[in-house]
Every structure is written in structure tokens, then in C-alpha cells.
Please model this.
Amino acid sequence: MSEWKKSWAVAVVVAATALFGYERYCRHFGFEPSVEETANAWIDHWNDAIPGRAVLLGNSRCQAALRPEGLAAMFGGEPPVQLCTVGVSPLSVLDYLVNHTSFSGTAIVEIVPGVVFVRVTDKWPDLKRHLEEGPVFERFETKVLLALQSRLAMLNRQAKPLVRLRGLRGLNPEWLQHQTHAVRRDGVHILVGHPELTRQDFAPEKWPDGLPWPQYIKADYEKRSSDEELDQLYGSWRRTIEKLEERGGQVIFVRLPVTGTTREAEDKYFPREKYWDQLIRKTGAPGVYYADHAELQGFEQPDESHVAKWESQEFTRRLAAILKPVLRANSAPR
Model:
């Protein structure tokens, strides 16, 4: 073998050994393969939903609390497609899914008042643009990246050496590594904080970006839709839901738990009777509100807004038991 071939062989072996060692190191500390939440990654899941798969629509609370495989038995063994994404109203997604595709499945739609009942300022237009106009090469690149990220823990955003070093130096407090950074390739859940942290390492006063959730809720309240705007939205949502039901599909709204000052703020700024109750009454869709079910309360929520990762499997199991009879009662097309 020539000298240059030997050099290349040695280089390949050294590089492979280093990568294998770092992968083992990441897995030893509890990191798992996960996919960064991007528009193209979301669209890859979107394509799995049509025409008849069940879907989860919502934001980070839904991503944190619900594990699709825990709901699979309700849908013939096939888990719902995880289409939750941060900063997008799930009803914008539902409207497009029903009115621009052949979707005919069940949509479990998480309602966060500060996302749904405010004037639309979300990221849906950009996501829609990616959905409609995304270049083929971008989607090919995404599929390759997803294939790697879903298999290699070292590509977990929180496992990258620079992030680890910044955390050690105190530049990136680990509780600031918010759980919306990554989601498993199969959409099972998003990471909650850092895998090495225990329950004791979280503190209720520490929220994403260093701000308490109640401040976000108050800011959302200040851009809330007027009563007239809400009436128009209810009418539009009802028409969308009826169209889906005619195809044999259905929508079920869910309100996931919040605790502490976050719950106090949402109850103050978005009272149930004015928002949730009106949504259910005017759209005609069934709903599950966590406060009505003792079994959906008492779960750990380190930031008062998201069910902790270590609680998500049990939370999903309990919610599934509540959803099952709702599905039976509303599964037949009109």
C-alpha cells in the first residue's frame, strides 16, 4: 500500500474512533438522538399525516406532555403524527390541513389561550411558505440531516461541545436550555432542560429566557382579539370542523395543565368562561379541560407551564383514558 493510502487509512481510523468515542460519551450522560425543530423537519412530519393519520396540533406544552406512542392504541396501533410547533396557532394549521389537503383523520388540538385567542402574529405564514414553495433540494437536505440526527446523540443540540463548555463556564445556565430546542425524530417528545439534571436542579422561579411565564401571558393579553374578531374566528373554525367531520374525521380540543403563578395569570387574563367555554360552545367540538379531571393534575411542571419529561408517559396514559370515550362518541361521520 502506498504511503498516501496508509495516511488516509490512519486518518479515517482515528476520525472514526474519535467520533465513536464522543457518541459513547454523549449517550453515557443521557443524551439521545433528537432533531432540531425547523420548518423543513416539521414539513417532513406533515407529509406523514395525509390523508387519514391522527395528528397532534399545538405548541410546546403539547410537545412536552404528550407522547404519541402512548396514544397509538386509540388509532389502530398507529401513533398520531406530531405536528405541534412553537409560535404557531394550531387552528391556523388545522384550517390549512382541512381546506387544502385531503386530510380525514382525527386532530387533537391543544389550546393555549395566549396563542389562539390573540391577533395572529405567529410564524404560520413562514411555515406555510416553506410548505408550498420549499425547494426540492432543501427537503432532500433535510431528509439526510434528519436521518443523521435521529441516529446520533452527538448531534443533539445540547450535547454539542461548545454548548457544554458554555454551560460549564456559566455563560449558558442549563435551565435556560429551553425544552423546545429539540424533538425526537419520531415526534415522541421534546427535551426538557438538560438530561443530567434531576428534579432538584429545577426551580419554579426559573423560566425560559429568565422571564416568568406570567409576563408572557400579560403581553399576550394586550394583543388579544376583540369579541367581534373572536366571533368571526369561531364561525371560521366551526366551518372547518364541520368540513372535516363530513369526511369522517374529527377535532378534539384539549387544555393542558399549568400551575402556580402561570395558572393564576391565565385564569386572570383568559378566564375559562369567556374563552375556552365559548370555543367549545361555538365550534361544537368536544373538549377536555385539565381542571375537570383530577387525574390530569399534580404532575411536575418545573417552569409551571410544561409537564416534565419524566412525567409525560404517565400523563399521556391518563389523557388517553379520557380521550377514548370521546373518540367513540364522535367517530362517526355526519
The longest strand covers residues 250-255. The chain has a mean pLDDT of 78.
